[in-house]
Amino acid sequence: MAEGGPEYLPRSTLGGRPLPFSSAVRVGDILYLSGQMGFRDDGTLAEGMEGQARQALENIREVLESAGLDFADVFHCTVMLADMKQWSAFNAVYLDYFNEPLPTRSAFGTSGLALGGLVELECQAYTGKK
What we know:
Layout: E1 7-8, E2 11-14, E3 17-22, E4 24-27, E5 30-33, E6 36-37, H1 48-66, E7 74-81, H2 87-94, E8 104-109, E9 119-126
Parallel strand pairs: 7-8
Antiparallel strand pairs: 1-4, 2-3, 4-5, 5-9, 6-9, 7-9
Helix pairs in contact: 1-2
């Protein structure tokens, strides 16, 4: 890797099996996190929207912490929901993890998510102040 080039965090896993992408990539002062879903370490999905949203955010916490960051460093999130009717339920969990000032955010409904998930969340974080 050339000096100043991208820094790749370890590959993501699901139930101990490596997935075909890195958990995050740092480019300059920005950490780009891969989308996280509500999968537990054993590869099973948490129950319901609340459970999957909470687990996805815990998975994000783990990636952020591995880079020496936390939720206060996140400046943008993209939320993908299998059912937009679950938007309010997702927001109730999301607000347990973020404080003011809140990051910018986009949210959209999908025609389906991988492996039957209800929510996927990807974020970008600023690493420059660390």
